Amino acid sequence: MAKALFLSLPLAGHINPSLPLVRELVGRGDEVAYYATEAFAAKIAGSLGGYRPYRNAFLRDLRQLPERIHELSSLLMTTTAEVLEQELETFRADRPDYVITDSVAPWGAWVGKLLGVPVVTSISTFALNRRVSQFAFAHGIRPASTRLVLSKLRHVARALLIGRKLRHLYRVRDPGLRGLMFPGSDLNIVYTSRYFQPCAETFDERYRFIGPSITDRKESDGFPWEQVQHRVMVYVSLGTLFNTDGGFYRKCFEAFRDQNVQVILSTGANVSMETVGAPPSNFIVRSYVPQLDVLERAAVFVTHGGMNSVNESLYYGVPVVVVPQMSEQALVGRRVEELGAGIYLAKEEVTSEKLRESVNRVLAETSFREHAALVRKSFLTAGGVSEAADAIVAFTSKGRLGTGVNRGSSA
Q1: ∠ CA 184-18-137, rounded to 5°
Q2: pLDDT at 399
Q3: Nearest partner of 316 among 231, 270, 379, 222, judged by Cα
Q4: 225-380 architecture in CATH?
């Protein structure tokens, strides 16, 4: 048996895909201490992982993140410095044999480096490299203004400065510019398929594309399914983080008011519908909906393009209309568009007319569902969490850093 620390970014789109992997590892005899926040304690316990709370104030309340997304690089490195100061000795006391870190939780890679144990990276987005960045740029995904470019560069510079201070403080060798923020690992678990991944041919055997981890979350109690039995269902959600745009919801009302469809609109908990206005009669509006159950029945999904949401939709063969709220989601939307499994709509260009036209086109043209089915097939034939666990066992047993894990022998 080996002991692992799982250091995640406490957001649903990052935690949900990882939980089936945790269950698989625990089922094989490993012990996993999973650091997150109280909102995810029950889910982590359900995956058989041992929930541990982060003490860091920023990680305990990420509601401010959408407004500060342009500061992401410096926010992550500031958080890394704080987490190492606050919790490194706690992590050390856990005596882990290996660390699994979220790809946007650089403190996890630093913890592994400082404890001298192997690090596995959990990637809930697309895997990224220079070629993927070039793909994004070629598809028009770039900062909207020079001012925003300069702001991001300032925060990158600040992040690099923090990284260099950490290098001197903890006496680790210079890992290079990218390595200061993301020291990297020799095993990366990506929760999508090679078919869906842009530029997949540029990623070597260190990247395991296992497909999305879809589990029955059993969260549909009390949902009025009787209202949607005999109509085409359109599902609309901006996810759990970028979901406060009341103007977008009003455009949805106008777009589908007189359409012969049943719209399920998930708003999240931070929107007052009193300020948005009364929905049309063919809408069911909830702060929370059972997304997997809805997607099993939906004809099209209007989404922000979060990787987890799009993976779940395409897993059920449901084509998407992507209205991205940030660059990472725009990349997902462009890839969906390239594969013919949906339509991309730039946030700043969305009108009620374009929403209606896009949804009606997806409903009318069978090619969208056919191409979504191809992505679904690639998901179903990927290796899944069993392949990921096999790779983790082999990698951590090998002990690249000279700390090979003694897992015992099997009969």
Answers
A1: 55
A2: 55
A3: 379
A4: 3-Layer(aba) Sandwich (3.40)
